[in-house]
Amino acid sequence: MKVKDTAMGIAIALLLLTVMAVILLGGTAHTPSAGIRPLAEFYLKHCINVYNTTWWTSSPAAVTSMLWDYRGIDTYYETSVFFLAIIGGVALFRIAEVKLKAENEGGGRELGLSIIVKTSTRITFPLILIVSVSIALHGHLNPGGGFQAGSILAVCPLLLIASFSRRYLEDRLELSRAKCIALFTAGLVLIALVAALPLAIGGALMQNQPKHWSPKSPWELLTKIGPFELSGTIFFLDIAELLAVGFGFTLLFLLLSMPEKEFKRLLGL
To answer: What does DSSP assign to residue 149?
Structure first.
């Protein structure tokens, strides 16, 4: 054990010395230029250009506007890959559709953790939920968006599974796998509908604001709901992504949290 620890210490020391040598010998000389690169200039001009709003996205959150308004097709394919991964997980755990009996095979772990952990979870659960919804609703204005909000939303059921149990989530809160699939699918359908909306009025697929290659857009239809200023389709795409990502992860958590003993018993192993 001592020889192994010594060898690891020497390896770490050599790594640090190598990094220091690279820095001292000018390894960091390849720094970004002072000027703006063409791609960055394009995004600055078309995403957050408050001085000329002719072709911009009207979304102060530059990253969100890039993902949806200029890389929308890429984002759509990424969401499709996520959908296929979720469906693949559901297919692998198809046997888990059988309603599990309330047995004590899992012991204390299946019943949940201590009262301190459960109380802390009850306090933090609504706070995490509020943060998630807020990030989704303001993703077109501030850093964030639908994927980030959905990832945060998925923390809520994960906390409940760890603190209480999987059965608490399914039986007490009635958040079944079927409901997760329905909400997950609803998010994907909403993405598809919002993406196709510009085509119905002569615009381009997933288009938000008017562009010089496609002047027609659903901007005038989706720019405001009552007193709330929106960024056209970006707002609705963030909400749809919240549903797809949040409940997609929740579905996987429900499947993966199934006790191994119970899973083997259902398979007859």
So the answer is: H
How many domains does the chain contain in total? 1
How far apart CA 211 and CA 56 sit, in angstroms, is 8
User: pLDDT tens digits for 26-84?
Assistant: 655 556 666 777 877 887 777 777 777 676 777 777 778 787 877 778 888 888 888 88
* 244-255 b/e (C-beta count within 10 Å ≥ 16 → b): bbbbbbbbbbbb
Q: Tell me the pTM.
A: 0.71
Domain-embedded: residue 194:
yes
- Give a yes or no: residue 124 inside a domain: yes
**Which residues have CB under 8 Å from 97's CB, separation 6+?**
177
Residue 42 burial (CB count, 10 A) = 13
Report which of 173, 145, 7, 153 is spatially closest to residue 78, judged by C-alpha positions. 145
Q: At 247, which amino acid appears?
A: F
What's the domain range around 163? 60-267
Q: What is the pLDDT of residues 85-100, one digit of tens each?
A: 888 777 766 654 444 4
Phi, psi (rounded to 5 degrees) for 29: -65, -25
Contact predicate 203/109, CB 8 Å: no
- Residue 265 CA to residue 114 CA, distance in Å, equals 28
| CA pair distance 269, 256, nearest whole angstrom | 18
Give the number of other CB atoms < 10 A from CB of residue 31: 6
Tokens of 171: 């039986």
Residue 225 bridge partners (DSSP): 228
Label residue 30 left, alpha or beta by phi (over 0 means left) and psi (-120 to 50 means alpha).
beta
Domain membership flag for residue 93: yes
Q: Is residue 19 part of a domain?
A: no
